[in-house]
Write a structure and sequence with these properties.
A hairpin with a 2-residue loop joins β16 and β17. Helix content is 38%, strand content 22%. The chain has 21 helices and 19 strands. The two termini are 49 Å apart. The protein is an alpha+beta fold. It binds phenylalanine. Phenylalanine binds next to β18 and β19.
Amino acid sequence: MRLPERQLAVLEAASATDERTIDEIAAETGLKPETVTGAAFDLRDEGLLSLTESAAETVELTDEGHRYVDSGLPETRLYRAGLALDAADAAVSMGRVIGEADLDGPEVDIALSNFARKGFGSIDSGELTVDPDADPDSDPEAAALAALADGDSPAVDDGVVEQLDSRGLVDRGESVTRSVTLTDDGVDALMTGVEATETVSALTPELLASGEWRDVEFAEYNVEADAPTTQGGRKHVLRRTADRVKDVLVGMGFQEMEGPHADSDFWINDCLFMPQDHPARTHWDRFALDVDPMTDIPDELIARVEAAHRDGWGVDGDGYHSPWSEDFAREIALRGHTTSLSMRYLSGIAGAELEPPQRYFSVEKVYRNDTLDPTHLLEFFQIEGWVMAEDLSVRDLMGTFEEFYRQFGITDIRFKPHYNPYTEPSFELFGEHPETGEEIEIGNSGVFREEVTGPLGVDCDVMAWGLALERLAMLTTGAEDIRDLHGTLADIEFLRNAEVSY
Ligand code: PHE
């Protein structure tokens, strides 16, 4: 019989009468434990070894546990400080004892609650008395910490481990010990003689050139062997969702728009027929920037937008008849939606093709002065888009969303009539959260009014939308809080493991 070298070494180190652990065999053969494990699995599959596994609890000290091994448990330090200040005879102010014990921050509370629990003394109206008969030297928790620090976990009583665990001083886990014994076939094989073959783990150009590949034995991958988890870098789940959104929209025939994050109110609001006294345009909601106003806006366009606001546009248009200031229109703020990009593109200044039909999109950041909560951030990504064509209807709008969301496995979006100053009709979109079952708002959409398209010089229908990328990611990953996805509270485990569904 021929066996790869490492398997032969493991076979020879195994015994027919005694179980040997992987670690024992590793020590004897000089192979790494994971190599021995791999070989042992292979030998078991060939019927030459039998393999048993036993799981055992492991208990390890946390950083805080280690600190107390060095400096003593906070309650013990408190007790000794009390003794030193004669608190066995008369009550001493707690502040003095805490100072003497050199306790600080959260350790103070830890010391006080455990001091009382262990009966080291009593605390009354801010004064502390110690019980002279208490004996911190025989405290089982301190003894257990010391034993664990010495690597002697079997000596530690379960109840005490439980207590240390609840104090966050130990981490409990599980380890698996594997042992092997030679089977009868294994013994036979060794008696008849086994030869070692050299195994090759990678096919090299040299092996190919020399033709040697014909004679060597290739190592097989053992997909069952234990392997340490490695956490490599990976793209953030939101970025992956954004990339996926771009792929889907490009696949649907859309071209990408780009433009400034800080833009004039003209592009952010005025073009959208948002009255200048609209509540969303006050300083409460806008992130206004103290920079020079925007000068490079085409004059004719300003005149037409102003006319739409003052007197209306189209046969039935009446306008707002409210004040309109060109200076305000030129002021700069962080964009609260990326519909500013749609306006720039539809106006022709961005050099877009404007012969219908046309489709454009962006997946870009927007900024709003909202209150932070599980579904709101001050900045988030909006999936903006518009389709320009003759005779668009609500069916086209709904069909486009259904097609888009279906690519993410979302087939149950719902529409609710809505109002926007710039679209008529308008719809909000809702999706059901996969974990909570709640309906969450995922977007806003509509067909641009003539007051918007007219001044821009567009004379056919344009349907448009702004969808929230984070909400889409919540639906596809099941995240329940937007702050799990980004920001300082983001859950690193979630980010490591979340999959973007395709
Ligand atoms: N600007 C809207 C928002 O931020 C989205 C939208 C864009 C709605 C275009 C209709 C048309 O909610």
